[in-house]
Design a protein that fits this description.
Helix content is 13%, strand content 38%. The chain has one domain: Pectate Lyase C-like, CATH 2.160.20.10. The chain has 225 residues and is mainly beta. The protein starts with a strand and ends with a strand. The structure holds 2-acetamido-2-deoxy-beta-D-glucopyranose (5 copies). One 2-acetamido-2-deoxy-beta-D-glucopyranose (NAG) binds next to loops.
Length: 225
């Protein structure tokens, strides 16, 4: 396990760290060295994922609930933003998109579980800079939590967990039955003001957090396995 006091890093550094360490355990412990910007810390509006029909039984697929909640919260982006609260439970979901001025908050014992059905991870174009999927030609599966052209996004909570249930993907990879490049857990393209803290990331199908063309990524008290 690698322990950092605090990291407030830039894109290139984060990519390197995750490329080398994505298959070992590492922890990021935050303290006052890392000054919080205060940006978006207090959101005037908050909803709970259960208000959108989500069921935290580890079995019900909640992709629609996440998508609908975030679609609803889109109307608050120019009013200081909003918080999506995920209470304790096991919330199975496919890929969903974040929006600007959003806080995704995972309470204690809240676990967001990635679906084990590859259809719940839609295929998107390869990154322009690669020109092809990293593992296979053509598209790639979109990350579980995805964002593009965003600003002021906070993914945090009271030590909740984001678990990609990646073993199915590792098996597809080994048995060469993948049709497209594997997804990441979190990917934020062309985004600024992203803070990821106080969470545990487990079992990513591929790399854990993948910021592409981003500035001001901060990460505190976050464990990656
Ligand atoms: C990045 O996002 C900004 C708006 O947030 C947009 O104007 C710009 O075209 C985007 N660039 C790319 C490469 O997506
Ligand atoms: C992001 O910005 C690029 C370039 O302006 C645009 O082509 C793309 O559709 C935008 N994507 C989203 C999801 O806003
Ligand atoms: C982070 O999680 C811990 C453990 O659950 C909690 O005690 C602490 O208040 C959280 N910190 C922040 C900044 O939310
Ligand atoms: C946070 O959760 C991880 C496992 O998910 C655990 O190892 C760690 O001790 C927890 N931290 C706190 C402060 O509760
Ligand atoms: C790949 O495509 C085949 C044929 O459509 C399908 O049966 C299989 O489930 C796909 N594999 C994955 C990992 O999605």
């Amino acid at each position: 396990m690698v322990n950092f006091v605090c990291i407030c890093f830039q894109l290139v550094y984060l990519l390197l760290v995750l490329a080398f360490f994505s298959h070992i355990t590492w922890a990021v412990k935050g303290n006052s060295l890392c000054k919080q910007t205060g940006m978006g810390e207090i959101r005037p509006h908050s909803v709970t994922i259960t208000e959108f029909g989500a069921v935290g039984d580890g079995v019900t697929l909640n992709t629609k609930a996440f998508q609908n909640a975030i679609f609803y919260l889109n109307s608050f982006t120019d009013k200081g933003g909003a918080k999506l609260f995920v209470p304790a439970g096991r919330w199975l979901t496919g890929s969903f998109d974040l929006i600007s001025h959003l806080t995704l908050w995972l309470d204690k014992d809240a676990v967001i579980l990635g679906s084990m059905n590859s259809d719940d991870w839609p295929v998107v174009d390869p990154l322009p800079s690669y020109g092809r999927g990293r593992e296979l030609p053509g598209g790639r599966h979109r990350s579980l939590i995805y964002g593009r052209n965003l600003t002021d996004v906070i993914i945090t909570g009271d030590n909740g967990t984001i678990d990609g249930q990646g073993s199915v993907w590792w098996n597809w990879f080994r048995s060469k039955t993948l049709n497209y490049t594997r997804p990441h857990l979190v990917e934020l393209m062309n985004s600024t003001g992203v803070v990821i803290s106080n969470l545990t990331f487990l079992n990513s199908p591929f790399w854990t957090i993948h910021p592409v063309y981003c500035r001001t990524i901060k990460s505190k008290s976050t464990l990656f396995f």
